[in-house]
Amino acid sequence: MAPASQDQSALMRDDYDELGEEEWHRLARDLPGRVSFEVHRRFLARLVRPGHRVLEVGAGPGRFTTVLADLGARILVTDLSPVQLGLNHTYVGTNRAEEAVETREPLDVCDTSRYDDGEFDVILAYGGPPVVRVRANGRGAARPVPHHDPCWRGRRLRYAGARHVSTTPQYCGHSSEEPRTGR
User: Fold this and answer.
1) Residue 182 belongs to some domain of the structure
2) Across residues 12-20, what is the average pLDDT?
3) Does residue 124 belong to any structural domain of this protein?
4) If we measure between CA atoms, which residue out of 121, 126, 127, 114 comes closest to residue 156?
5) Prediction pTM value
6) What pLDDT was estimated at residue 79?
7) Count of domains in the chain?
8) pLDDT tens digit string along 111-144?
9) Looking at beta carbons, which pairs linking 149-154 to residues 24 or more positions away fall under 8 Å?
10) In a 3-state reduction of DSSP, which class is residue 138?
11) Which domain holds residue 51?
């Protein structure tokens, strides 16, 4: 991983570590948050089927982990932030959604080399990776990562046969599907 990518990863990890429990409340606190959650939930309901194996990138405290479990998915929960992974275990681990979680592990999206092509049916990256949250005066603002950094383009997330689902603050959702090969 290049030093610039390491710097971006460290900034993002530190930001989400600091954000802590506030990330759990973000999509329930006000009307825009609840609408955003519902739009994203419905988007997943159209794409995820029972038995799908999902790589959830940047899972945070688990709002969408629970949605994926309700849809019948098997989930590999990942996050750059150890604090968010811990919160995911706290919130998801106390309900039946925990049965759908295969494991939780730290993941820097710039290095997904541990996963094989075709290992996942869906790769979910809601809220990133194309965005780095920047903390300023206690308020979060979104700043796009420069497009010349290939690890933020989803290249290392695209595996043969997997549907790639991501969002940024500017868009409600994006999905792409590559042809199935050998599965």
Assistant:
1) no
2) 87
3) yes
4) 114
5) 0.75
6) 94
7) 1
8) 888 888 788 888 888 865 433 333 333 333 333 3
9) 149/2, 149/4, 149/5, 149/8, 151/1, 151/5, 151/109, 151/110, 151/111, 152/8, 152/109, 152/110, 154/125, 154/129, 154/130
10) coil
11) 3-177
| R_g of the chain, CA atoms, integer Å | 15
Query: Cβ atoms within 10 A of the Cβ of 120, count?
Result: 23
Residue 132 falls within a domain, yes or no?
Answer: yes
Q: Which amino acid is at 124?
A: L
- Termini Cα distance of the chain: 30
Residue 102: what pLDDT? 97
Q: Which of 5, 2, 1 is nearest to 145 (CA)?
A: 5
Query: 166 falls in which pLDDT band (50, 70, 90)?
Result: low
Rounded CA separation 154/174 (Å): 12
Instruction: For residue 81, give the CATH number of its domain.
Output: 3.40.50.150
pLDDT at residue 110 in the model: 76
* Distance between CA atoms of residues 48 and 45, nearest Å: 6
With cut-offs at 50, 70 and 90, classify the pLDDT of residue 149: very low
Rounded CA-CA distance 177/93 in Å is 31
Of residues 31 and 6, more confidence is placed in 31
* Angstrom distance (rounded) from CA 88 to CA 85: 5
Q: What angle in degrees, to the nearest 10, is found between the helix axes of 82-92 and 63-70?
A: 50
80: nearest Cα among 18, 143, 172: 18
Q: Does residue 183 belong to any structural domain of this protein?
A: no
